Amino acid sequence: MEHKGIFWPAVGEVWRGRGTALRVIWLPFLISTIAYEAYYRAFPSGIALPVTVLEFLVFSWAAVGWHRVALLDEAPGPAGTRHGGPVPRYAFGWFISGLAAGILGMMLFLVVYLGLTRLFGVGVFMPMPGLPEVLLSPMAYLSTAFWVLPLGIGCMWLVIYLFFHFARALPALAIRRDGRWNEAQRGARRRWFASAAAWSLLLWLLAAALYYGTYNALLEWDNRLWEAGQDGAPLWAFSLLDAAFNVVYAMNVLIGSSVLTIAFRRSASVAPENDAGQAE
Fold this sequence. Notes:
This protein has helices at about 5-15, 20-40, 50-70, 85-120, 135-165, 170-175, 185-225, 235-265, 275-280; strands at about 180, 270. By secondary structure, the chain is mainly alpha-helical.
């Protein structure tokens, strides 16, 4: 029965081990939240590249800790895993997996979009020429909703699916063991990752909709206060919203790590422990 899905078993595994999960995630979450808050207060229009690199490192620290808990029954310390040796390579593998998945997803989006554009002779999100002016805005909206939005969602699903596929070896890297994947279960892994990608995307879309809806409401409140000659909305309101979204991101790190852990546990055999695997 456990082989019928992987996302909700992963959620259940994190929930059952929520005390341990909190121990591996609380410090990376705190570091990430404070770093972003400090950076954007100092550089409101910055691109936050240094903070993004830091985030990859600290959340890789959490992911490595969770893999070692789930696969080695290794108890983390108060601040997370005691074995930080695999973290830089894990962060690099995570980055490369995400980058490769993102590039392929973007390429698919552009190929389909340009193909539809050439097929119809006009941008798929633009109204057809010759329509009455009163219909231009509704037609543009409907065209966007029926073409670009589903295409974008489909490509986002593909990106998450490919990320799980490319990142499937990360648990072995975290525990510093070699793993041999059972090729007979290749089809099952594809189904697991496809399902996990769909559920992950759904939850991310809901979280993003809530975030941007609340953010726009805060901006409107801020503008109205300034127009009324009062101070704008307090910065802590925006900071609290960013922290809430970071909570969602931290939970996604744990659930994604658990998805990869369960896939590894189900369909990979681990080489015996050796001196190289123990080296830190």
